[in-house]
Amino acid sequence: MFNQKLNKNTAYTDEELVRKIVAKNDSYYFSVLYDRYARFVYSKCYTFVNSEEEAQDLTHDIFIKIFINLKSFKGDSKLATWIYSITYHFCISYINKKKAEKVFFSNEITEGAYEEDINDKQFERELFEIQYTQLQAIFLQLPIEDRMILLMKYQDDLSIKEIMKILKLNESAVKMRLQRARKKVLELREKSE
Amino acid sequence: MKNQNKIENPFKKIIQEIELPEAMKDKVINNVNLIKLSLELSELFLVSIPDVVFNFMETEKKKEADEDPDNTTEDNNDYNIEKDI
User: Fold this and answer.
1) pTM, whole model, 2 decimals?
2) Which CATH class is domain A120-192?
3) Buried/exposed B6-24: b ≥16 CB within 10 Å, e otherwise
């Protein structure tokens, strides 16, 4: 019987689950949603703060925020993208508060317009040639915004459109930041060699 | 041959495999229940109870008007018509 209920829960799509939670502020269905996304949120938080304790606190606060704001999820994007966006902005805000300085880029910071670089594909290939142990070391020296955009693109395989939604930026700004982050990784690799 | 040429993505290898403690779920769900309770209580005191009081007063007003034969306000007539129906 329990298994039947469990199977039924796993069969719900994200959208169905959200509808069920929102209809009655249902904490049981919210726990199903938690099971689906907890590890994902936790690992993203850990990437930001590099501390298990802080990542756990952030995960807790993010899920509370998700519960409170779930009504505002209209299904324009995938639930995973929406949760990623909340996680990203929550962590950035946490880091900014912690450092008491603005480390995060905003739309106001001049990026310069993105210009298609014929070397972009070449940079990408060079990026993939880096050993992952070396990449890990380089990552520790990268600013958090560069690290996150590279992970979105190359680890989570998010499309430019999805990254645009998460970062709330236009296409040109996203491509510009990716280009900049790739160049930084390659520069750091050269320095380390 | 194809596989040999395929470049592996090093980003996929730097995934942090860390376990989230089970107790975290209980903590989150307990707090969610607390938020739910406070939402329901505020709805009770700010929406439901004022609604009941308002309806009660309206009914009392209509009752009084019904018992007073001199009162021939439009509202009262409407109420009597509704009652007859």
Assistant:
1) 0.72
2) mainly alpha
3) eeeebbeeeeeeeebeeeb
